[in-house]
């Protein structure tokens, strides 16, 4: 009898794989058990100043985690370490059980399934929304080759599904430069999603959005959780309240508090260094 295998290569009864086992290939993510992201004792210094100071943090598979903290707490530096932009002086960083992020370059980290969205949207303004998604899907090909290659039906379906998810199906043929700020942010998120990342890092995704756009973004993130793991850095506490399950507060390069939004909002140290100001 073949044991049913889930998307994560787990047997449905949680037991060891038998029958048609899928073995994790070198360079492939294995988040079948344990956290999807594991940071332990990470320190990063800039000219003697510790931007990250023995930071330890884990994200579970499919989790939506909010990261908050005052300016200079180390949020961006942490994402730079995860994506290979900055090297840690010491500490451990694993993506799944097998991928040592400290030994991978930025391109390899993207390929392995970590997508990052910076604060400012960076879409191709002259190209249509559809073409932007097409370019993102085939990021390893040249722009020329991508736009003149014929898309297979599976790729077209993937673009259509993504357009629906980011609610831009009616704007597929519009130049991206004509979209509102919020729509550009969604398009960029779509450009990440189409590459099927396992972990998404999102830096202040609702900055500059209208209230309605912010609400829609909250809905989008809640719908992505479970299928993807999300790390959302955000100062907008109303938005955090809409999406938060577990919140991590960073301060001076370390985790100051972690728990439900309610727990961290009532934490004396958190009020002192961040929320009360
Ligand atoms: N390349 C660098 N060289 C020197 N210092 C740096 C560098 N990058 C970051 N820092 C310092 O490290 C500290 C942490 O910065 P980081 O940008 O990670 O904080 P942050 O939590 O993202 O802040 P914000 O909320 O303002 O974006 C800050 O004091 C910052 O000045």
UniProtKB/TrEMBL annotation:
The keyword Transport is assigned to this record: yes
CDD domains to which the protein is assigned, alphabetical: ABC_Mj1267_LivG_branched (cd03219)
One GO MF term attached to the UniProt entry: ATP hydrolysis activity
Start and end residues of each ABC transporter domain: 37-277
Keywords associated with the record: ATP-binding, Nucleotide-binding, Transport
Keyword Cytoplasm assigned: no
Signal peptide coordinates: none
Listed SUPFAM superfamilies: P-loop containing nucleoside triphosphate hydrolases (SSF52540)
GO cellular-component term (any): plasma membrane
A Pfam family this chain is assigned to: ABC_tran
InterPro entries attached to this UniProt entry: ABC_AA/LPS_Transport, ABC_transporter-like_ATP-bd, ABC_transptr_urea_ATP-bd_UrtD, BCA_ABC_TP_C, P-loop_NTPase
UniProt cross-references to NCBIfam families, sorted A to Z: urea_trans_UrtD (TIGR03411)
Full protein name: Urea ABC transporter
